[in-house]
Design a protein that fits this description.
two-stranded antiparallel sheet, 3-stranded antiparallel sheet, 163 residues, alpha+beta, single chain
Length: 163
């Protein structure tokens, strides 16, 4: 008679508290007070503190400090894709979800008396004029527009060359 194999107890399937996925995980990742468990997915582990937060998640795409001085406008967007659901990313952006932001390189701080710090951050269009002179904003926007006009012209020329 062959030796009898040891029976392995079956794993009990349970649900992740973060994503709701049902899994028979061998081990769970827990938050500090063990009130929330997470499966093996990175986003779930990050949610309970088993992984450090992403840099863009910490900043939230923007800085809490006010823009004090504009060096240069680097870009613009009508929505923040990192704040959109997977379904929203697959569909056209709803007008209610549009929020115009500019990617600005400049000096940020708590107010005009603060020396501040240099950073690059997304700034809502309504916040541009809070602590910055209107002429400075207008000049930076005009420089950005001129740069974009050149880029679009170069792209149009490249498209025409392909035809």
């Amino acid at each position: 008679m062959p030796p009898r194999r040891r029976q392995v107890p079956p794993r009990r399937a349970d649900r992740c508290d973060v994503c709701g996925k049902k899994t028979a995980a061998g081990g769970w990742y827990w938050n500090d007070d063990r009130s929330k468990k997470a499966c093996h997915l990175r986003d779930c582990r990050r949610e309970v503190g088993a992984l450090p937060p992403l840099a863009n998640a910490r900043a939230g795409g923007s800085t809490d400090a006010a823009l004090l001085e504009i060096e240069e406008v680097l870009g613009m967007r009508y929505c923040d894709p990192s704040q959109m659901t997977a379904v929203a990313l697959r569909n056209p952006v709803d007008e209610d979800d549009e929020r115009l932001e500019y990617l600005v390189s400049g000096r940020f701080g708590s107010g005009p008396d603060d020396r501040g710090f240099h950073s690059v951050a997304w700034v809502f269009d309504g916040d541009l004029l809070d602590h910055v002179d209107a002429e400075e904003v207008k000049s930076a926007m005009q420089a950005y527009k001129n740069r974009m006009d050149k880029e679009f012209a170069a792209l149009a020329d490249a498209c025409n060359a392909e035809m």
